[in-house]
Amino acid sequence: MTYNKALNSYNQINNSIEKPEKLILMLYEGALRFAVFAKKAIQEGNIEDKVKYIIKVSNIFIELINSLDFEKGGDIAYYLNGLYAYQLELLAKANAENKPEYIDDVIRVLKGLIEAWKEETGL
Q1: Mean per-residue pLDDT, 13-26
Q2: What's the CA dihedral at 21, 80, 32, 121 to 10 degrees?
Q3: Higher confidence at residue 53 or residue 10?
Q4: 12 belongs to a structural domain
Q5: Per-residue pLDDT tens over the stretch 59-68
Q6: How confident is the model at residue 20 (pLDDT cuts 50, 70, 90)?
Q7: Distance of CA 23 to CAs 69, 81, 114, 121, Å?
Q8: Where do the coiled-coil regions begin and end (predicted)?
Q9: Does 14 reside within a domain?
């Protein structure tokens, strides 16, 4: 993909997001989708897909960590930082040990985050 095509795609997505709250929801939902794919890949013994999807979920959690505002967010930001970091640990264990149970924990947390975010933001 050329730089201009990538920039146009980004701008289209960016323009379709009305509120920053929607972007967070999209990140949570994307992480959930990729976590489900990673679990399936582990169950099927598909190492290439397992690694690909675990990296995608990990990158989303890293982006979520980087977006935290500790001054404005206070205790909630610190809590989320720890929660996201723990999810990264679970993903690393799932990758190293090929245990879908770790992914199950990540999926459970993501579902809870999605539900709480929707309730909090009214999305």
Answers
A1: 75
A2: -30
A3: 53
A4: no
A5: 999 999 999 9
A6: confident
A7: 15, 18, 12, 12
A8: none
A9: no
Mean pLDDT of the residues in the chain: 90
Query: How far apart (Å, rounded) are the C-alpha atoms in residues 63 and 11?
Result: 19
Decide if 108 is inside a domain: yes
Range of the domain at 56: 20-121
Prediction pTM value: 0.84
Q: How far from 26 is each of 17, 45, 110, CA to CA, in Å?
A: 10, 28, 12
Report if residue 104 sits inside a domain: yes
Contact of 106 with 35, CB cutoff 8 Å: yes
Is 114 exposed, middle or buried (CB count within 10 Å of its CB: 0-12, 13-18, 19+)? Answer: middle
How many domains does one find in the chain? 1
CB 94 within 8 A of CB 100: yes
